[in-house]
């Protein structure tokens, strides 16, 4: 057998093996992801007649081959749970506009709940955690187009760094975003430098021995935010969605109006905004979000 022929046969065999492995990996990932917790809005909330649904976004990625390949071949929940395709994001914002859903700011939500008056409509609040480049590049232009208010929660000590395969926005980019958005933008703090997990998967600020450190970190996050954008904030957003008892107690004592969690739910007339629920928006949750917004179930 000629040397060239052997090379071609070897190349074909390698391609076949590669395709087989890719299919196997993809099937394994789909099985693994299929066993993850659902982000759908639970059925009990579909019967809530009115209120405020707070959307939670992390990354809004352009639909490129690289992104699609990464999503197909990665079992990392970051790709599947916290990423939204930029075209999907545009469609979601368009849906809100076409169905006359009132998108309100965090400030407006505070006013509505503080009034203790009944909520007669279904509102949406847009929030973005971490603030990487995709929020600035891909999400901001869409929100400006529709003149939608939104809240960004910043890891004040990590700006400009790479985290989980993405680059966080720099202060310069955040300030430019503030200039473009004007009164549409609200800021929250997302810790200064305590947005990571310990080796056993516990959020570092929830480790009891780190409580004093967390108190200092919170104070520093407010100080840095004031230095960079000119004011402190009354909004705190938990990394990983919640804090332990002593962290919660400490934050309750701070001059905060809103503490965002990742507890699933809908803000209602008597909700405690220092335990504000949110809905993670992704391809899994969006159909149930649309259902609550525009196809409410009737109460028994």
UniProtKB/TrEMBL annotation:
Pfam families reported for this sequence: Polysacc_deac_1
Coiled coil, from the record: none
Localization annotation: Secreted
GO molecular function: hydrolase activity, acting on carbon-nitrogen (but not peptide) bonds
One BP annotation, GO: carbohydrate metabolic process
Domain NodB homology: 122-300
Record-linked Gene3D superfamilies: Glycoside hydrolase/deacetylase
Keywords tagged on the record: Signal
InterPro entries associated with the record: Glyco_hydro/deAcase_b/a-brl, NODB_dom, Polysacch_Deacetylase
Any single Gene Ontology cellular-component annotation: extracellular region
Name under which the protein is recorded: Polysaccharide deacetylase family protein
Organism field: Pediococcus claussenii (strain ATCC BAA-344 / DSM 14800 / JCM 18046 / KCTC 3811 / LMG 21948 / P06)
Taxonomic placement: Bacteria, Bacillati, Bacillota, Bacilli, Lactobacillales
């Amino acid at each position: 057998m000629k040397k060239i022929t052997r090379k071609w046969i070897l190349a074909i065999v390698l391609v076949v093996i590669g395709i087989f492995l890719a299919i196997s990996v993809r099937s394994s990932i789909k099985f693994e992801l299929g066993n993850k917790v659902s982000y759908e809005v639970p059925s009990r909330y579909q019967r809530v007649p009115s209120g405020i649904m707070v959307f939670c976004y992390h990354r809004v990625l352009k639909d490129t081959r690289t992104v699609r390949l990464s999503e197909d071949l990665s079992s990392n929940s970051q790709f599947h749970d916290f990423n939204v395709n930029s075209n999907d994001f545009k469609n979601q914002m368009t849906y809100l506009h076409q169905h006359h859903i009132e998108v309100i700011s965090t400030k407006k939500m505070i006013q509505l709940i503080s009034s203790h008056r009944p909520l007669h409509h279904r509102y949406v609040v847009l929030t973005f955690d971490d603030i990487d480049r995709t929020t600035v590049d891909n999400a901001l232009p869409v929100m400006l187009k529709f003149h939608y208010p939104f809240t960004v929660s910043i890891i004040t000590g990590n700006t400009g760094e790479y985290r989980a395969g993405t680059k966080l926005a720099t202060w310069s980019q955040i300030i430019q975003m503030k200039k473009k958005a004007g009164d549409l933008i609200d800021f929250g703090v997302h810790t200064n430098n305590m947005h990571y997990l310990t080796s056993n998967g516990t959020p570092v600020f929830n480790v009891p021995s780190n409580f004093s450190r967390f108190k200092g970190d919170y104070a520093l996050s407010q100080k840095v935010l004031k230095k960079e954008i000119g004011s402190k904030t009354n909004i705190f957003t938990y990394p990983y969605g919640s804090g332990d008892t002593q962290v919660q107690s400490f934050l309750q004592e701070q001059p905060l109006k809103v503490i965002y969690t990742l507890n699933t739910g809908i803000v209602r007339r008597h909700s405690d905004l220092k335990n504000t629920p949110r809905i993670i928006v992704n391809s899994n949750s969006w159909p149930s979000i649309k259902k609550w917004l525009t196809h409410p179930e009737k109460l028994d």
